[in-house]
Give the backbone structure.
Amino acid sequence: MPRVASDLVTSFALGELAERLDAELIGDPAQRVHRIASLDTADAEAISFLSNPRYLPALATSKAGCVIVSSSHRDAAALRGAALIAADPYLCFARLTQLWVSRGREATVPQVHPSAVVHPEAQVAATASVGALAVIEAGAVIAEGAVIGAQCFIGSGASVGAQTRLSAQVVLGAGCHIGARGIVHSGVVIGADGFGFAPHGGRWEKIEQLGGVRIGDDVEIGANTCIDRGALEDTVIEDGVKLDNLVQIAHNVHIGAHSALAGTAAVSGSTRIGAHCTMAGGAGVVGHVTLADHVHLGARSVATHSIHKPGLYTGLFPIDDNASWEKNAATLRQLHRLRERIRALEKNKET
Amino acid sequence: MPRVASDLVTSFALGELAERLDAELIGDPAQRVHRIASLDTADAEAISFLSNPRYLPALATSKAGCVIVSSSHRDAAALRGAALIAADPYLCFARLTQLWVSRGREATVPQVHPSAVVHPEAQVAATASVGALAVIEAGAVIAEGAVIGAQCFIGSGASVGAQTRLSAQVVLGAGCHIGARGIVHSGVVIGADGFGFAPHGGRWEKIEQLGGVRIGDDVEIGANTCIDRGALEDTVIEDGVKLDNLVQIAHNVHIGAHSALAGTAAVSGSTRIGAHCTMAGGAGVVGHVTLADHVHLGARSVATHSIHKPGLYTGLFPIDDNASWEKNAATLRQLHRLRERIRALEKNKET
Amino acid sequence: MPRVASDLVTSFALGELAERLDAELIGDPAQRVHRIASLDTADAEAISFLSNPRYLPALATSKAGCVIVSSSHRDAAALRGAALIAADPYLCFARLTQLWVSRGREATVPQVHPSAVVHPEAQVAATASVGALAVIEAGAVIAEGAVIGAQCFIGSGASVGAQTRLSAQVVLGAGCHIGARGIVHSGVVIGADGFGFAPHGGRWEKIEQLGGVRIGDDVEIGANTCIDRGALEDTVIEDGVKLDNLVQIAHNVHIGAHSALAGTAAVSGSTRIGAHCTMAGGAGVVGHVTLADHVHLGARSVATHSIHKPGLYTGLFPIDDNASWEKNAATLRQLHRLRERIRALEKNKET
């Protein structure tokens, strides 16, 4: 299922690309491109793109056979050769990569690999695929066109939506559900127990986690990410959410549609994140709080309370050479007292 | 092995619950409850609980058929219907979830799945279970009632204690040991090499990791957590420790009994954590230090030195709107100089 | 493949060790040692070492049968018994552990386990091993002496260099490559898709990840670490790099030779890290920046911009008792205003 660069030996005529990508072509429709590359590494057989104006100098010197640009860079692009003019060059590039893969990738022939262990009471659709040495337990449902990678584990009563693709070694726990057109990368664990204990006499009494995990359509989940099952109700990931690698989603969390969490982000239990939020790498949210829609957290920044106003929030200690940091960090521990001293000085001034 | 909500279709009479949970019943012993729910989502067939007084308003409006409360809320609960009066409602709730699962979960029929690869020199107790496509190497010992999930790997000479349950795709490395009644979630890796190298001419010379991992009884380990083997002696996790998901335990670490580490917490090499400690999400401890018993680290807070006094310790940059953060972070890099300026002002005042 | 302590029952005569480790022996060449231990736990049958002078007091009281020391501690060591004098005792210790394992570990008999699913178009060298229930896809190449652990997944067109050892349950994605003498621990995922999306009308359009991962020789990768494939070109890990557990390497990252990243470190997309760099536990680098050679990041410190000068950089909020932290953190949010107040006081003084 994953693509290997060498599998993707394909090529497109610029005329076909213009039509498929809904872009205007400047140049010869019969000219072909054989790969996609960045402006600085592209050669005459490659197609490239300019989305960030700060790379404009690279446009002039690029050897790319064709470039995707916005109409505002039409003249600069035309000066150097073929171009596709697109309303949003980055989006156009994204769709180009999809086009490339759809042609370059061999279609998966639907089959249940003979080495897979599929319970007789599991339902696998006729057009679904199950990889080598996968395990599918009783009552699980694999929908049409879904691809279960090699060595995956699908627990009892779990379900995988149509066209959803699981890479090798994914765990989808019992009674957990993922919708259609999802992508789940290797090492993901969906439906482990949430971390719930009642303290009792210096020990921890387990609270059995009776909920499940409910994941919407068009969700992508990065490698080794964990989404725990809810304590009483379900942990919920809405449609279009994108989670990067090594992300931690605790029990009872609810993530609104089209939010995106970068690598090693972490959300503590019972927290509710709105729609269209983003969390940069390593950002976090404590438990039992709410983020409104369109809240954005900077790298490693931890929301320790609810945030009701959309916007960008940050809380990251600035890096410095170690000697400077040592001095500032030491002073930081006296910061409150420094404020008192300023107050005293101000008072003294007044008198 | 994991529970699916739909598997747990069961019900209890309140009289039986009162007896089993050692609680006093107000109401009809024959009344039945069919699920457990929070106060605000419960219906007449559900049992709920009040442990945090701040949810007291929800008690009055809850539609729950029965609520678990402490004696101090007996009157408020009795006003609205059936109630179980318990000394510690949260503990009572925890035990209720256990009761629910013990009745709702089908008993695992002990068997070694025919697709598992079990070395002839491994010992699997008669009442233990081994899941599909698991691998158990020579000399490994699986005790009575233990459950090895599908696709687990148990290395040579490793051992799993009685009644301990491993979810699918757990790795227990060679010569590593876990005690009785443990729970290990999917993706956990116990016994990878510690990160040990001697620098030599700009390269890293590997220090082979000759120790193992020794885990006590009643330990729970969350999904994708890693516990490395020791360099010369064992990495040790004592009885009753609870580790959440994506936790990193480096080589030679020693974690005292009944400590709990939340998601993405990390402990560096050769550090010793006392008993009854807690680390909130993303907290950390550097290497070669010691935390006393009953030390608690706040979210993302990193102990950079030994802590000998019990208590709560924090070190987290407060989050702010990005514009405010930028100004404060910039000033933070001059903090030491600000202190000098305050000193100068104070001196000036004196003269 | 992993070593179990009990497997390593072996012993060496001090004379042989002196010769093999290129060290000078003080004592009887026929004296044997049966284990390696730290100074404080060693007994008369153990060999120990002193590399850090702060453990000098432990040398005098150690019961070790033999100690490895530098020439500057020759006299102190000789006073207490046998000693090996080495130019670099820590390096000597590292090589001793390697010697121990090479003798104590049973040689892996090359075989493809009959339960492994190896595609007929994969190439497995005659001296390579493939563990139980591993999956190797079409076009993959496993070089001489390589060891593929149980339940590993090697994608189509991927390659594993000579003598490289993969522990159980490693995923090497399609078209990804690792060089010779590497060590990859369980749960590692190499070649999942990078996190690339173009925003479009409040949704995320996937950018297919067309690159691969290229890993050099002598690279070690810790448990559950993730290395994503590049968007257009390869993610690159150069020779001799060491990655600890739960490390996140995003797409298009380039890590220079002999750099070492400790547990839970994270590098964002398209960032270039020089050679001989180190990142302490939980350190991070944002995307699209460059670290020069010999840059060192302290624990949890995040490089938010390029660093061109070698040295140690830190940015970590100092931990404190929670009450002190609360006061200082609150004041920190007014830090910029405090600076204004100091300025006002200074101005006032001048007038």
About this structure: The first helix of chain B runs from residue 14 to 20. Confidence is low (pLDDT under 50) at residues 1-7 of chain B.
